[in-house]
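debug: dumping io for the single-chain case to check the tokenizer round-trip. Nothing else runs in this session.
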Amino acid sequence: MFENSMWLLVVAGGPLILAILLAYALLTRRRRGPAERRESKRATERLYREEED
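debug: decoded output
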């Protein structure tokens, strides 16, 4: 009986824990604001220009 409940924990609990962690990571992920996106775009364009020179 103990083996069956242990397998249930492994088979059902593992993916459940992974799903909870994935949901937590997606919900707490920091998104860049408009100013940060503009600055990133400017820096990328500046790097490309420096590479061409």
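debug: round-trip ok. The first helix runs from residue 2 to 28.
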